[in-house]
Design brief:
The chain is of the alpha/beta class. It has a single domain, classed as D-Maltodextrin-Binding Protein, domain 2 (3-Layer(aba) Sandwich). It has 2 helices and 6 strands, in the order E-E-E-E-H-E-H-E. Strands 5-1-6 form a 3-stranded parallel sheet, sandwiched between helices. A 3-stranded antiparallel sheet has the order 2-3-4, with helices on one face. The protein starts with 6 loop residues before the first strand and ends in a 41-residue tail after the last strand. The mean pLDDT is 82.
């Protein structure tokens, strides 16, 4: 913590391992927390990690309990718009990580 620096409250849900999870001792962990530590270091701001239930992330953000949260965006599939899960009045940044879901099935050994 840098004395006198602004503090950014960042919500962590713990439901995106290994990017974002809560360890057995109740502390936020994963790539996102390491990323946040670097952001704090480079920006000269303090970062306070706040554990948030995934279902409460929009309310926590809208109410000012947190300033920022890592958010998973539903891919635009034509069935659902990409912003279907984005609360009103919230601004999304460009993603820093993208992945693909791949389903595997074991081949029958017959």
């Amino acid at each position: 913590m840098t004395e006198g620096a602004n503090t950014i409250k960042i919500g962590v849900t713990g439901d995106l391992p290994p990017l974002d999870y809560v360890s057995a001792d109740g502390k936020a962990a994963g790539f996102n927390t390491a990323f946040l530590a670097e952001v704090a270091k480079r920006s000269g701001k303090n970062v306070e990690v706040v554990n948030i239930a995934s279902s409460a992330r929009a309310a926590a953000l809208s109410s000012g309990q947190i300033d920022v949260i890592f958010w998973v965006v539903v891919p635009d599939s034509g069935k659902f718009p990409a912003d279907i899960d984005t609360p009103e009045g919230v601004e999304l940044s460009a993603p820093y990580f993208k992945d693909s879901v791949v389903h595997l099935k074991l081949k029958d050994s017959k």
